[in-house]
């Protein structure tokens, strides 16, 4: 309705062509930067509170020391944050010891309950997963596959999105594709809950053509040419020049990768 009203105010008819462009952004999640230990403590604290509230509502004993468990966990977490490099791993082991005790107690409680909530199941699964990942990554120095990682306990849909922006390591949220016309009216949007598969938006054949290395080189070179023209015509700030530098680095990486593939034939 808003778009139709806006086009009517602009006196656009049915025969007037619309020039559209698509762009992507990230709907950011309201959260702190995720670390394994922080996420583990969030999952365990939520698990304890959820079990305490449920058991109290049905008159079941077993979690009367919930506040003590949370306090013990919080103390271990803050000691880990303040630990120096030499004592950090010992603090991590203390957190894992507390985590194993809480999970063991929670499993015993869940087995006796007639009704288990979805939150209990999720917090318990997240706690077990994060205990395993913290142990593997920090103590055993293993690499965790990206697909296995949890970025938010409270908003599990959160994704790690890297768009290649200068000075931005990653954005945490959900990728969004937005389609707008030349009058800056948003015609549609698509939340990419499936992990941001660009082919699902553009179509398989179109995406294969756009993802061809030579096409990517051409688009990057065109972007650099446009930025250079703007810089030469105006008095710009350092941010534009930093963007030009980042684009040039990407072009160099793409060209080098294509050259190596060609020489390896």
End-to-end Cα distance, whole Å, is 56 Å
Count of alpha and pi helical runs: 9
Structurally, the number of domains stands at: 2
Low-pLDDT stretches:
196-201
Task: Please state the CA-atom Rg, rounded to the nearest Å.
Answer: 26 Å
Q: What is the number of strand segments?
A: 4
CATH-level-2 architecture of the largest domain: Up-down Bundle
Overall pLDDT level? 81
The CATH class of the largest domain is Mainly Alpha
* Secondary-structure element order, N to C: HEHHHHEEEHHHH
Shape: extended
Q: What is the name of the CATH topology of the largest domain?
A: de novo design (two linked rop proteins)
Described by strand count, sense and barrel closure, the largest sheet is: 4 strands, antiparallel
Report the structural category.
alpha+beta
| Share of helical residues | 55-70%
> What percent of residues are in strands?
5-15%
Give a written overview of the molecule.
The protein is of the alpha+beta class. It has two domains: 13-26 and 171-263, no CATH class; 36-148, de novo design (two linked rop proteins). 57% of the residues lie in helices and 10% in strands. The protein contains nine helices and four strands, in the order αβααααβββαααα. It has helices spanning 2-9, 36-57, 66-82, 88-112, 118-139, 199-202, 204-210, 213-233, 238-263; strands at residues 21-28, 159-161, 171-180, 186-191. Strands 1, 2, 3 and 4 form a four-stranded antiparallel sheet that branches. Strand 3 (171-180) and strand 4 (186-191) form a beta hairpin. Helix 3 (66-82) runs antiparallel to helix 4 (88-112), helix 4 (88-112) runs antiparallel to helix 5 (118-139) and helix 8 (213-233) runs antiparallel to helix 9. The longest helix has 26 residues, at 238-263. The termini are far apart. Residues 196-201 have low confidence and may be disordered.
